[in-house]
């Protein structure tokens, strides 16, 4: 039952309200609905949208999506088996320890939302929600069409956006980084060169990921210092021009490319390294999922895996009668080390001498890249435990 807000009015109560229909919220809603629970899923966007993301689906991400019942093969992603790490003229290549998938968020998020709806969740699009009152077991939300929605259990899955009333804890200082994403149509030789590869390009002021997604489209997603963006004139066009001028590899890949989006997606002030630490007076009926519970540096390509894992763990803890306090301890145990290790690697890659050292190590033993990839994944035992809880 998919619906938009324009014609109908959402109900005013639900056993569980999920705010945010990204991988975390939609994944949790699928699971709760399949267990026969009354779940309302509120998504701010009225229609499918592009989102800033490298669009790299790790093995865990794919396993969760399939286990939740999504027909991933029908979505036409591009299989990725190899990683190329590039810095200046040095290129190191290695096989990934798993097969990843390149698939746009435009296609993936829409399919997952529809799947949640088909699984029995009451999906409401174009509904920006905010919290108006939390008192004991009772939570009131202000929602665009419904006015007020009341629930005893809230799953907060709004991604990097905080609801004003329910800020993250602890407050982590955001990095001076800006992110951009653009889809390109590249010439056939470059498209062939990118077949089955994800490329991670290190440049002086940041890094870029380049890979194919569905239909031969190529996704460029990059993170760069805000100060560098300013030096490039403060615009995407200026930044891209400077990037291609100073990075021959990207110049080769994108010289005859046509942008496929009317404008790039952008993001700034991402709280990389954040892991939710509940304050003493935390509500025991508000479960935080996805980027609301932990934000891993993007190069790891596992943010969606964490989002789905947290959605599954939150739903199964809730179904087992365990409160949000228990869930937050549980999810912290599962993801904190992975996020910490990814942060360490990320900081090393930003500092010029250690960046050179990393490249030399990768050149000597390309399999060390594969090891780094494994270190930044959710522990397999935690995934196996969570996966068993999906019926
Ligand atoms: C530059 C960059 C590159 C990345 N690359 C990758 C990658 O290649 N692979 C990977 O796995 N991860 C990647 N990530 C991380 C990944 O995008 C996130 O970790 C993941 O999307 C988190 O999922 P989520 O469901 O928590 O949040 P989101 O996917 O952000 O979904 C949140 C949803 O909530 C909705 N929403 C927000 N506020 C409200 C509101 N008030 N009311 C109703 N709805 C609301 C939004 O519209 C959105 O649909 C990247 C992140 C960045 C910044």
From TrEMBL:
InterPro entries: FAD-bd, FAD/NAD-bd_sf, Geranylgeranyl_reductase. Keywords: Monooxygenase, Oxidoreductase. It comes from the Bacteria. Residues 14-130 form the FAD-binding domain. SUPFAM superfamilies: FAD/NAD(P)-binding domain (SSF51905). GO terms for molecular function: FAD binding; monooxygenase activity. The keyword Oxidoreductase applies. Belongs to the CbrA family. This is Protein CbrA. It comes from Vreelandella salicampi. The lineage of its organism: Bacteria, Pseudomonadati, Pseudomonadota, Gammaproteobacteria, Oceanospirillales.
């Amino acid at each position: 039952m998919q619906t938009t807000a324009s014609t109908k009015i959402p109900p005013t109560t639900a056993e569980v309200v999920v705010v945010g229909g990204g991988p975390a919220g939609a994944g949790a809603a699928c699971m709760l609905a399949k267990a026969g629970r009354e779940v309302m899923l509120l998504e701010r966007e009225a229609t499918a949208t592009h989102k800033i993301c490298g669009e790299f689906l790790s093995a865990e991400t794919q396993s969760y999506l399939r286990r939740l019942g999504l027909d991933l093969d029908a979505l036409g992603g591009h299989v990725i088996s190899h990683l190329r790490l590039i810095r200046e003229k040095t290129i190191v290549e290695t096989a990934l320890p798993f097969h990843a998938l390149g698939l746009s968020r435009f296609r993936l998020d829409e399919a997952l939302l529809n799947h949640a709806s088909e699984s029995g969740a009451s999906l409401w699009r174009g509904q920006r929600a905010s919290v108006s009152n939390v008192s004991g077991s009772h939570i009131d939300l202000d929602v665009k069409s419904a006015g007020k929605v009341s629930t005893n259990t809230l799953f907060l899955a709004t991604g990097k956006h905080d609801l004003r009333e329910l800020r993250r804890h602890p407050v982590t200082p955001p990095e001076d980084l800006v992110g951009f994403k653009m889809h390109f149509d590249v010439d056939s030789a470059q498209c062939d060169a990118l077949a089955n590869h994800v490329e991670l390009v290190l440049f002086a002021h940041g890094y870029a990921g380049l890979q194919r997604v569905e239909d031969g489209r190529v996704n460029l997603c990059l993170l760069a210092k805000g100060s560098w963006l300013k030096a490039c004139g403060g615009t995407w066009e200026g930044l891209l021009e400077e990037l291609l001028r100073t990075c021959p590899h990207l110049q080769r890949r994108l010289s005859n490319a046509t942008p496929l989006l009317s404008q790039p997606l952008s993001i700034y002030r991402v709280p990389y390294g954040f892991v939710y630490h509940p304050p003493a007076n935390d509500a025991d009926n508000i479960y935080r999922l996805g980027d609301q519970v932990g934000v891993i540096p993007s190069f790891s390509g596992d943010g969606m895996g964490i989002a789905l894992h947290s959605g599954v763990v939150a739903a199964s803890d809730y179904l087992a009668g365990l409160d949000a306090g228990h869930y937050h301890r549980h999810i912290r145990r599962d993801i904190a080390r992975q996020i910490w290790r990814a942060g360490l690697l990320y900081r090393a890659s930003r500092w010029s001498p250690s960046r050179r050292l990393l490249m030399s190590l990768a050149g000597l033993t390309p399999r060390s890249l594969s090891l780094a990839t494994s270190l930044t994944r959710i522990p397999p035992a935690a995934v196996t435990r969570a996966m068993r809880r999906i019926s």
